[in-house]
Amino acid sequence: MEKEYLTVALAKGRLARQSMELFQTIGIDCKEMQDKNTRKLIFSNEEKKMRFFLAKSPDVPTYVEYGAADIGIVGEDTILEEARNIYEVLDLGFGRCRMCVCGPAEAKELLLHQRQIRVASKYPKIAKDYFYNVKHQTPEIIKLNGSIELAPIVGLSDVIVDIVETGSTLKENGLSVLEEIVPLSARVVVNQVSMKMQNERITNLIRSLAEQIADEKIQEN
Ligand code: PRP
User: Fold this and answer.
1) Residue in 76, 31, 84, 72 with CA at minimum distance from that of residue 189
2) Ligand 1: which of 150, 165, 173, 177 to mutate, most ligand atoms within 8 Å of CB?
């Protein structure tokens, strides 16, 4: 019987580029994907019987849960926010950043009390889980879709829950980290049925990726 394709969904952007570089180091490349002008969304490696496609990051766990992709590579922020039934199997170590509560320095005081505060975020589930379950506070959570740092500046919210990488967006807008929620990085996720049906193939692939990451870490030190 002809070997089936193993399908990998990648979160569009920097994560996808770093993921493909990693796949290349373990001998799996996809030349057509390197063409910067292409509008194609799905790419294949016929020899390895693998397909890669690019999706918006919040959609990656969805493709994987439904089995449209066997494997996904996406940030831990998206995995936590989407809360899909998928296996999280490997921390790739890149795309490192932090999910934080941020705001003007004066807002730190508000976080200490059971006061009614407003929190703006692109990640309402993560924000709610943190405030309700960790801090035992019940703020009003306002969902936004980007440029979250604007919210406390224009008075939409007291604080924000957002990703901090270098910290420069906060700094340039007079805001700072008030509390850290969780460290983040790129993760490999797997469809639960694929993990059973194609166990050997998927396990070998994950092992190769993990070994490559470990080797790179040794070389760094
Ligand atoms: C993300 C995040 C912060 C910024 C943090 O936004 O939401 O705004 O990056 O990075 P820094 O700490 O290195 O400054 P992104 O650029 O993805 O766009 P968005 O604001 O539209 O979500």
Assistant:
1) 72
2) 165
Ligand 1 atom with the shortest distance to the CA of 122: 22
pTM: 0.94
Work out the number of other CB atoms within 10 angstroms of the CB of residue 137.
Answer: 17
Q: Which atom in ligand 1 lies closest to the alpha carbon of residue 167? A: 12
Are 74 and 189 spatial neighbours (Cβ–Cβ below 8 Å)?
A: yes
Judge residue 2's burial from the number of C-beta atoms within 10 Å of its C-beta, 0-12 exposed, 13-18 middle, 19 or more buried.
exposed
Q: What is the mean pLDDT of residues 201-218?
A: 94
Phi-psi category of residue 93: left, alpha or beta, with phi > 0 → left and psi -120 to 50 → alpha:
left
Ligand 1 neighbourhood includes 166 CB (under 6 angstroms)? yes
Residue 184's beta-bridge partner residues?
Answer: 97
List the strands of the sheet with 140-143, edge to edge. 140-143, 118-121, 159-164, 97-103, 176-184
| Residue % of the chain over a pLDDT of 70 | 99
